[in-house]
Every structure is written in structure tokens, then in C-alpha cells.
Amino acid sequence: MDSPLTDTEQELLTRVCSRLVSGRHLRSAPLIRQSLARGLETDDNGINVVSIYESREAGVNSLMPYKCCPAYSSSFGSDQSAVYKGIFAKPITERLDAIAAGFNFTANDVYGIMELCGYESVIRGNSLFCDLDLFSPDDRPGWEYTADIMYHYNVGYDNRISSVVGLPWFNASANLLLEDATDE
């Protein structure tokens, strides 16, 4: 299969990629890494943290090539997932509308609330807001399948550029993780 990108687009991809790393990303990454590592370790010697430096020189050899690809759009998969989102969210919106009369919940509201429930559960360890009175155990798989559809068309097998975008990501990750610690 021929590459869906021309040589000019690939060159542009390399140049654009280097402009996307902000100082905020560079400052927040160590804090996130430290909090995740400390939360998971059971003793002081249990985790080997691998620091992956992102730079302008990395171009597509980085962990974010999808953001650098001019042929990529974050909206890929939105239309396809919206169809199923409307189906799975319909009974939930009706249930929530009955609880909060006059609000008129939409499928996007339901999806967003369920997404926030996941974040709250990870951050706090549970969710006082998103308990079984709000969402039943049968509601979550509909949310998950909606996301699966979106990602399938966004970065999965039904997107013609997934392999082009994914290969540099895979190569950069594999090479950095397989480096000998003495190479640092």
C-alpha cells in the first residue's frame, strides 16, 4: 500500500510536530509521572521510571505523531459514534429528565457526565456523584462501546492513516523503552 501522505506532507509533518510541545506539558509531565509512580509502588525499589524527552528535533519520532499529521483530524469517528451514542443514551436521558424536570438532557450530556464519572473515580477512588442511583451497571457498556466506535474510526483499522501515524509512535516508544540505562 502506498503512503497516503506525499513527501511534502511528510516533511511538513516533521516540522509542525516540533512546535506542539508547550512548556506547560514539559512542567506537568514530571508531576504526573511522580504521582502515578508513587501511587502504584509497594516499596522503594519496585518501579523503574523511564523518562522520555520530547523535543523539536524529534519530529515524527515522538510520542505524538498524530498531532503532527496534516491528514489527521480529531473529528474522525465522531459521526459514526454519534449514531450509537444516540441509541445508548436515549433511555438514560429520559431517566435523567424525569429526575431533573426542565433540564432536557442530551446524548452529549450523558456521555460527558459518564466521562467525568470515570475521572472522579480515578482521582478519588470512587464517585459519590456517579453511583448506582444515577447510572446502572448496564449503562457503562453503552458508553464504552460508543468510545470504541469513535477510536476505531479515529486511530483504528477504519482510518487509512492509522498505520502511518502509528508506526513512528510505536518505533519511538519501543526504541526509548529498549534503550540501555547507560545510554542516557
Question: Which features characterize this protein?
Answer:
single chain; 184 residues; mainly alpha
Descriptive account of the structure:
- The structure is a single chain.
- This protein has 184 residues and is mainly alpha-helical.
- It is 58% helix and 0% strand.
- The chain has seven helices and no strands.
- The two termini are 37 Å apart.
> What fraction strand?
under 5%
The pLDDT mean sits at 75
Number of DSSP strand runs: 0
The class by helix and strand makeup works out as: mainly alpha
What's the arrangement of secondary structure elements?
Blueprint: H1 7-17, H2 23-40, H3 65-68, H4 78-99, H5 107-124, H6 139-154, H7 162-178
Helix pairs in contact: 4-5, 4-6
In short:
It is built from seven helices and no strands.
